[in-house]
TrEMBL record:
Short name of one Pfam family: Aminotran_3
Protein name, per record: Diaminobutyrate--2-oxoglutarate transaminase
Pathway(s): Amine and polyamine biosynthesis; ectoine biosynthesis; L-ectoine from L-aspartate 4-semialdehyde: step 1/3
Matches recorded under Gene3D superfamilies: Aspartate Aminotransferase, domain 1, Type I PLP-dependent aspartate aminotransferase-like (Major domain)
Cofactor(s) required for function per UniProt: pyridoxal 5'-phosphate
Length: 455
């Protein structure tokens, strides 16, 4: 079957290349292949499966919706499923936003939601410029690509996103975040005449495709202050971070930031396609039909999504993700001292990234910065994990980061199994890397490169 798919599918296919698995049954964290082999799935449909595969609550909601006899698809007409979903969604949002919220069902994907959000703030402000950040991933259509890092349109200004391991200013920490904030202020305040005025700023509280990069809470508050003072709407992309993934129901809650617009997808539809934009009422300047779409009334996704939102909220799964994520990070971070090819371990909640690096990278003239990313080693870790019955994702610069996105329902026992298999896979890859890459004339101390005194 994978061979047949390889012949028939477009060259654009991705996961099928690195994960030659043919799922026939799944429940929770576990997938069973056509050959009877079982895998622990820490890909979770790229984070869409907040409750894992085929959770009883989700299946019951879908069956109930189907058995009701109500139409499955009715555009944006009012339905009980739509009303129940909207009510549950507003219950989970930051109260300041929920009190003034308008909800827009804009299509079946995060890309649709990002495009709708950008279109909304442009209509509301009358401006065209957008502020985005390096490493961002905000959808895959040409319209959405005006904002992320790959954009070529001059209307999108790309700003430095703060991070510790590969800080754009070579500093990291609070100082690096402060410089990133000042850079943003200078772009806005020192613009030349004729420079497009920003219609909005869009950011991810944790960059997923960028390599699992949690934004510092203080920096997020600075972005909120910078945009509020200048009357620039702040769009927060919670497509990957929402529904409890980072240890709060919405990742902005870590910092206390209340955005003007939130982009929601991935887990919001309870495993089914659903894209939603939530925004302040004063931004609602659209005329009827200004932004439409044939598939914005997915009633099954609304039913599954409402059930998922309620289950996460009622069972404290966000809080569990916070505690379990801290435990996972504590157990994985020592790998940076143990293996020279493990550069960094980072994340928030159950959104974990392990950056693989080239262990023989030469030192710099003044100091040793992070070694170059090693996508080949990350791919090798993914392959070794698969051999051990564990499915993981890749992301980051040149796909050099191994990513874990387990469902929020993962048990302690399953967590131990995931960590054991992952560590064993990294151990195997590290041993091979050590043989392939002889030590550089910089000493290796505790598994990390250390500067040679006087050289």
């Amino acid at each position: 079957m994978p061979r047949s798919q390889a012949v028939r599918d477009s060259a654009a296919r991705t996961y099928a290349r690195s994960l030659p698995v043919v799922p026939v049954r799944a429940r929770g964290l576990t997938i069973e292949d056509a050959d009877g082999r079982r895998y622990l799935d820490c890909l979770s449909g790229a984070g869409t499966l907040a409750l894992g595969h085929n959770h009883p609550v989700v299946l019951e909601a879908i069956r109930k919706a189907l058995d009701s006899g109500a139409p499955v698809h009715v555009l944006d007409l009012a339905t009980p499923a739509r009303d129940a979903f909207t009510t549950e969604l507003l219950r989970t949002l930051p109260p300041e936003l929920a009190a003034r919220a308008r909800v827009r069902f804009c299509g079946p994907s995060g890309t649709d939601a990002v495009e709708a959000a950008c279109k909304l703030v442009r209509a509301a402000t009358g401006h065209t410029g957008m502020l985005a950040f390096t490493g961002a991933h905000a959808g895959l259509t040409m319209g959405a690509l005006e904002a992320p890092a790959g954009a070529r349109d001059i209307r999108a200004a790309r700003l430095p996103y703060p991070q510790d391991y590969r800080c754009p200013f070579g500093i990291g920490g609070e100082r690096g975040a402060e410089l990133a904030a000042r850079w943003t202020e200078s772009v806005l305040d020192d613009a030349e005449p004729g420079t497009p005025v920003p219609a909005g700023m869009i950011l991810e509280p944790v960059q997923g495709e960028g390599g699992v990069l949690p934004a510092p809470d203080g920096w997020l508050r600075r972005m909120r202050s910078i945009t509020a003072v200048r009357s620039i709407p702040l769009i927060v992309d919670e497509a990957r971070t929402g529904v409890g993934r980072t240890g709060r129901f919405w990742a902005v809650e870590h910092s206390g930031v209340v955005p003007d617009v939130m982009v929601l997808s991935q887990a919001i539809g309870g495993s089914l396609p659903l894209g939603v934009v939530v925004h302040r009422d004063d931004l609602d300047v659209w005329r009827p039909g200004t932004h439409a779409g044939a598939f914005r009334g997915n009633r099954l996704a609304m039913a599954a999504g409402a059930a998922t939102l309620a289950h996460v909220r009622e069972n404290g799964l966000a809080e569990r993700a916070d505690a379990l994520g801290a435990r996972i990070l504590a157990q994985l971070r020592p790998l940076t001292e143990r293996f020279a090819c493990v550069g960094d371990v980072r994340g928030r909640g159950l959104m974990i990234g392990i950056e693989m690096v080239t262990p023989d990278a030469p030192p710099g003239s003044d100091d040793i910065g992070p070694p170059p990313p090693a996508p080949s080693l990350a791919t090798a870790v993914q392959r070794e994990c698969l051999r051990r019955g564990l499915i993981v994702d890749l992301g980051g610069s040149h796909a050099g980061v191994v990513r874990l996105l387990p469902p929020l329902t993962i048990t302690d026992e399953q967590t131990n199994a995931v960590l054991d298999r992952l560590t064993d896979a990294i151990d195997s890859v590290a041993a091979t890397a050590a043989a392939r890459f002889p030590a550089h004339p910089a000493r290796v101390r505790g598994g990390r490169l250390a500067r040679v005194p006087g050289g």
